[in-house]
Amino acid sequence: MKDAGDAAVVGRRAVESTTLAVVLGFALLMAWDNRRTGIGWESTGPQAGYFPFYVAMILAGACIWGLAKEFVARHQPDKAFVERDQFRRVLQVFLPSLAFVPITQYLGIYVASFALIAGFMVWVGNIKPWKAVVTGYVFSAVMFLVFEVAFDVIMPKGPLERYFGY
């Protein structure tokens, strides 16, 4: 017996049909654009759009086949694509990773990486905070030494790096 945490968020058929429709749209756009650039054969060989056009047509055909299979199976019971507990775990990783991007713009990559690693270790991994802080610090310090000192790679800087003259 399933509990409320195992209830389906979305069905497999809906996800697959939507994905197939989106990929079909891109394939048709790719085919149209490559047809415009030339899909024929010249005396020197294929035109610029020849191979991409036929790849797009094969991809479109595969999408149409998949959509037809989903249409035929529409009356059969659907399986869960993702359940609530699984979706919660995905969001546990996705949302902090998404927040990492704008935070990097303000705090710099090293401070943001420290916060992300330490936060993941505590929040997702249930690791003791002191271990998470040490690990995040060591990782960020090694990353700083490799990119800033050894390879002299320009990375997004924040107020901490500017304070120390980097």
Description of the structure:
The protein has 166 residues and is mainly alpha-helical. The model has no long low-confidence stretch (mean pLDDT 93). Helix 4 (109-123) packs antiparallel against helix 5. It folds into 2 domains: 8-82; 84-163, no CATH class. The protein contains 6 helices and 4 strands; from the N terminus they run E-H-E-E-H-E-H-H-H-H.
Task: Identify the notable features of this structure and list them briefly.
166 residues; mainly alpha; two-stranded antiparallel sheet
What's the total count of β strands? 4
> Can you give the helix content as a percent range?
55-70%
Provide a count of the helices. Answer: 6
Task: State mean pLDDT (0 to 100 scale).
Answer: 93
Distance between the termini: 58 Å
Overall SS class: mainly alpha
Strand order of the largest sheet: 1-4
What is the helix/strand order?
Answer: EHEEHEHHHH
Described by strand count, sense and barrel closure, the largest sheet is:
2 strands, antiparallel
Shape: flat
Radius of gyration: 25 Å
Query: Number of domains in the coordinates?
Result: 2
Q: Could you tell me the strand content as a percent range?
A: 5-15%
Uncertain residue ranges: none
Give the topology, please.
Elements: E1 8-11, H1 12-37, E2 41-42, E3 45-46, H2 50-72, E4 80-83, H3 84-107, H4 109-123, H5 129-150, H6 159-163
Antiparallel strand pairs: 1-4, 2-3
Helix pairs in contact: 1-2, 3-4, 4-5
